[in-house]
Task: structure prediction
Amino acid sequence: MSMFAEQETWNIVYNRVLNKKICRRCGALNSPRAVKCRRCKSYNLRTRKIKIR
Ligand SMILES: [Zn+2]
Result:
């Protein structure tokens, strides 16, 4: 039972799943470096980053 390994797993999950940009217009997920939405071409993107304490 290793708490550290579990923390590492969560870090990977957070980086892959939550480190995205979400379109405010259509809700599509875009890559973290995306400038505009890949679905509706809107520039109104927000980041979804959750910090782990
Ligand atoms: Zn969009």
The longest helix spans residues 3-18. Residues 23, 25-26, 28, 37, 39-40, 42 surround zinc ion (CB under 6 Å). The radius of gyration is 14 Å. Residues 10-48 form one domain.
